Automatic annotation (TrEMBL):
Coiled-coil features, chain-numbered ranges: none
Xref: Pfam families: HGSNAT_cat (PF07786)
Record keyword Transmembrane present: yes
Name of the featured protein: Heparan-alpha-glucosaminide N-acetyltransferase catalytic domain-containing protein
Protein's organism: Mucilaginibacter pedocola
Superkingdom in the source lineage: Bacteria
Domain Heparan-alpha-glucosaminide N-acetyltransferase catalytic stretches: 4-205
InterPro entries the record matches: HGSNAT_cat
Keyword field: Membrane, Transmembrane, Transmembrane helix
Transmembrane intervals: 49-70, 82-103, 109-128, 133-150, 182-202, 214-232, 263-280, 300-320, 340-359
């Protein structure tokens, strides 16, 4: 039986529940611009904003999990495992996620998203794995705090576009096939390397009280630093906040940090509260935390599964709504022209997806804990 760290699974599961809302909105909502201060509403903005916590948490906890995987492997074995798993995640984006997003079996518009970002981060970690843990964490820290400056100093070219400045980076393969890299590799590797260093807190024998204190203080410090730097409005995000037509929208502007590429303020705003949450959930045990744990036990399988299920719902609703099966023309995410449901229906469909997928997720989580086949480490 494989042991799990409950607080990590609880937080990861909660983030996956939130992630599901984002993807249901992406596939099923009436076309909108949640972060456009001129047109958005408070509810629509926060429906999008809360999902900003997803990608940084996945990347950070992937680093923590990599450290824990190294507790039962040699450095050489861990490096090989991270290399293979990283490549598998990149392939997953190239094949499964691209097909679900573009709905184009010819793969003319290939997408590299969060799975590829985690995968490349793992490959980089595999190359660095023999360095001291503190040095790996320092490299992650420098990337997080310095890449906004590096973006302004380095010239625009295909290499910096792929590594640092994906908004997105467009990589033509031929006259008919193109790769769109939406997650710049180096900035997203920063949280993963930092997470690897934080993985030491979960090593066997580490004092639990000390771990919770470090996580709490680190999370509070990051959150307070976000507030201070964002208020100063000089460094850490390419999009400064501004006073809007009312106090509520001014707050939205303050919180509207840049995800692509992930700015320093974006990562402080998201990872700070996540660290606090990791500290506070260690001793929590209730019905809701148990539900979160179910999803957190099977991150990869749920990620692929929920995307496929939402796309299936999308197609069924297109037929039910009697809309022609005709694309809007946007190549990255296929959608029928004229399709879209109001936000209140999006929330209902979000709950429906969670309820339906809870049971297979619970079954698969139990199966993984009770079996040791090699391929389970990749699914």
């Amino acid at each position: 039986m494989k042991n799990r760290i409950h607080s990590i699974d609880i937080v990861r599961g909660l983030i996956m529940i939130i992630m599901t809302l984002d993807h249901v909105r992406d596939f099923l909502h009436t076309p909108s611009q949640p972060t456009n201060m001129q047109t958005t509403t408070v509810v629509l903005f926060f429906t999008r904003w809360i999902t900003h916590f997803c990608a940084p948490t996945f990347v950070f906890l992937s680093g923590v999990s990599a450290y824990l995987a190294g507790q039962r492997r040699s450095k050489g074995e861990l490096s090989a495992f991270l290399l293979k798993r990283g490549l598998w995640l990149v392939v997953s984006d190239l094949v499964f996620i691209t097909l679900l997003f573009s709905f184009n079996p010819k793969f003319q518009f290939i997408t590299l998203e969060v799975l590829a970002a985690i995968g490349v981060g793992m490959i980089l970690l595999a190359a660095l794995i023999r360095l001291p843990v503190w040095l790996i964490g320092t490299i992650g820290f420098v990337i997080i705090f310095g890449h906004n400056l590096a973006e302004t100093l380095l010239p625009d070219n295909p290499v910096t576009g792929i590594l640092l400045k994906a908004r997105p980076a467009v990589i033509p393969l031929s006259s008919t096939h193109t790769i769109f890299e939406l997650y710049a590799f180096i900035p997203w590797a920063g949280p993963l390397l930092l997470g690897y260093a934080f993985g030491q807190l979960y090593a066997n024998g580490f004092n639990g009280i000390k771990r919770r204190k470090i996580l709490l203080l680190s999370g509070l410090a990051a959150t307070l630093l976000f507030i201070a730097l964002r208020y100063i409005n000089q460094y850490g995000d390419p999009a400064p906040w501004a006073v809007q037509r009312n106090a509520a929208h001014t707050l939205l502007s303050f919180l509207n940090t840049t995800k692509q590429t992930p700015s320093l303020l974006y990562l402080l705003m998201t990872l700070g509260p996540v660290m606090v949450l990791l500290s506070l959930t260690e001793n929590i045990s209730n019905r809701f935390s148990a539900i979160c744990e179910v999803f957190g036990n099977v991150p990869y399988a749920y990620f692929i599964g929920h995307m496929a299920f939402i796309r299936l719902i999308n197609v069924l609703l297109i037929f039910i709504d009697d809309i022609p099966f005709k694309s809007t023309g946007f190549p990255l995410v296929w959608q029928a022209d004229g399709f879209g449901h109001p936000l209140w229906q999006v929330y209902l469909l979000w709950l429906f997806v969670l309820i339906v997928l809870y049971f297979p997720a619970r079954w698969y989580g139990n199966y993984k804990r009770g079996h040791k086949q090699w391929w389970l480490s990749y699914l």
